[in-house]
Specification:
By secondary structure, the chain is mainly alpha-helical. Helices cover 67% and strands 4% of the residues. It is elongated and about 95 Å long.
């Protein structure tokens, strides 16, 4: 049992008003012993900054998940709920998809569905972490093409998808026919000042000749 983790737990518990007993702190530390010490300490540091209520074991585990690349069960549930809208594009992991498949069978009981989702998701994430896996994100494409682009670009910003992946998922720019391209070029050419000036001089010359 790490003395550093015990000390950090004691400090965070006091700051958040958890009033944990010594046996409770040791019990939590034992649960955390399966994780690398540096990840636990990093998670406790985040709890100290972010937790507005009494510290719980779930608060710490959620932040350990985030340090491994997995999002917490609450954020995962929020993403999964978007999948109810078939027009929405949702970027998720295999763990989210499998947990959502279980939770969907419990609907319309949303409370029960959320509990089922969290239980399955947390178990799958633990299994993935135990085997050294990192989250693999993929896009479930919806019918709304505008919303699709927004969701995919947001996933790039969050580091969940690469730009190359997104480019393959977005529709290719429409090709311009040769006739339209020629017309556009002609219009662009006519709009140049030197071309307009030459046309004006030619018109003046013709008028003089007619006179």
């Amino acid at each position: 049992m790490s003395a550093k983790i015990i000390d950090a737990l004691t400090v965070v518990a006091e700051i958040t008003g958890a009033n944990l007993t010594v046996p409770a702190i040791k019990g939590i530390a034992m649960e955390l012993a399966q994780h690398p010490e540096h990840e636990v300490l990093k998670a406790l540091a985040k709890c100290k900054r972010e937790c507005k209520y009494r510290l719980t074991l779930a608060d710490i585990l959620e932040r350990i998940d985030q340090s491994c690349g997995f999002i917490g069960s609450d954020e995962a549930w929020s993403l999964a709920c978007q999948a109810m809208d078939e027009s929405a594009t949702v970027v998720m992991t295999q763990q989210i998809a499998e947990a959502w498949a279980v939770a969907r069978d419990v609907l319309p009981d949303k409370v029960g569905a959320r509990m089922a989702f969290r239980e399955v998701y947390n178990r799958l994430v633990e299994q993935a972490k135990d085997s050294g896996q990192k989250p693999v994100w993929f896009a479930s494409l919806g019918h709304d093409t505008q919303g699709r682009e927004v969701a995919l670009n947001q996933a790039v910003q969050l580091g969940r998808l690469s730009m190359n992946q997104v480019q393959q998922l977005l529709p290719a720019p429409e090709k311009v026919s040769p006739a339209v391209a020629l017309l556009v070029n002609q219009m662009a050419e006519r709009s140049k000042p030197e071309v307009a000036q030459a046309a004006l001089l030619a018109l003046k010359s013709k008028l003089k000749g007619a006179a």
